[in-house]
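Exercise 3.2. Students should predict the tertiary structure of the chain below and write it as structure tokens, then compare their answer with the key that follows.

Predict this chain's 3D structure.
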Amino acid sequence: MFIDTFSTFLRHWNGSKESWLRYIQEYPELFEKIKWDYERYETDWREYLKLLTKRTTEELNLAHGALLEVLPGVEQRIKRLFKVEGYNVVIYVGLENGAGWVTEFMGRPSILFGLEAIAELNWYDRLEGLVAHEFGHLVHWVLRGEDIEKFEDEGMMWLYTEGFAQRVEDIVTGRPWHLEYDGWFEWCTRNERRIKEEFSRRIRENEPLNPFFGSWYELFGMKFTGYYLGYRFIRWLEETLSFEEIAKLKKERVRGMILEFLEG
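Answer key:
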């Protein structure tokens, strides 16, 4: 099912927090999902209402138009390659929960595209890769028959889930990826050992792994290093396993293989 809430947003929006609340209250489950996304990190979602004033209607319209332009083509390629069905695609304006986010919504695995986050990241011309990446998470969910979001409760599993999605993006759209910037891939390749060692250290010492993945973090002066490392992990697994076998690996085995990969 395709659910585009943008026209409802425009009908309510006048630039105020109250107008956004009127809009989002028309979609109660979506509103609860947005609030839950902050509450799971023990953060009050109301503090982020101020983010709404950062975006102009023109920026949101640009993000919406660009997304609608690339979405059908990527979806067709995904369906041709992986035969996925029984999912939702939702377009909404949230509180920067993510440019793309795969979660359960209306009882189905769903991709939520946040127009305000796309605008914040200035990814208007990178949406083909973003859409492919989020469909990669959806493919993983469908192949496993398991809620990938719950699978990620253990931080080290992001290497597996994000790596899988990044590999799907690589298959569907090729490089450069949507999160790349000048010299990024080359730097990650040169510093792969360093990235592995830091990831491994943080696992051992139970430190947060967010700096490898969050768009608001840097590690060694670089963003998104976890996506590179996850991609390399999946490519390493492909040396001995099929893509479907990789998608369906038991959690205990994934944990052991991550540790083995990091040591290599």
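Discussion points: The mean pLDDT is 95. Residues 152-264 form one domain.
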